Amino acid sequence: MKSIAVFCGSSEGSSSIYKENAVKLGQELAKRGITLIYGGANVGLMGAVADAVLEQGGQVVGVLPHFLQNREIAHKGLTELIMVNSMHERKAKMADMADGFIALPGGPGTLEEYFEIFTWAQLGLHNKPCGLLNINQYFDPLVSMFDNMEREQFMQPKYRSIVIAEYTPEAILEKFSTYSAPSVKTYLTEKRT
């Protein structure tokens, strides 16, 4: 695994534990020689994870839409900053560049990014791992929702396996190293289960 895209909040959240663990993730990525691909901003958890990678001598590639650069949130110290025209272009570029995806705590934008990449995995558009770094049990309600989707038969058990939720950067990266994507359902040839 050479690169991981990280989706996370543009704020630091209500507790210092969020930033502390974003820093730990950045340090662990740098230690393993994994390039960080992220949204390119210098604020919130986004800035914290990027700074941590850079401080450890790692590589960081930011992907930022022009309209956000004009709001003066572009990180100036990155290995590379790629400017794009839209949020859609940003997500597509990050998806192309990354070998895996980790969501840290964040708001609706973070969840939207995670759900799109998860859905692409479910559809077989990629076979890369999709993780939730469950800092301070932030994602417990979401993990419960995935369990409910499976229980209520709105998601097959094999797709529930796409959700990798762990409490530490080390644990999530270990799971990534052994990840095997489920087979993709073709609605024409498989019975609905």
TrEMBL record:
Enzyme Commission numbers on file: 3.2.2.n1
Top-rank lineage group of the source organism: Bacteria
Keywords: Cytokinin biosynthesis, Hydrolase
Matching InterPro entries: LOG, LOG_fam
Enzyme class, broadest EC rank: hydrolase
Protein family membership: Belongs to the LOG family.
Record-given protein name: Cytokinin riboside 5'-monophosphate phosphoribohydrolase
PANTHER family: LOG FAMILY PROTEIN YJL055W
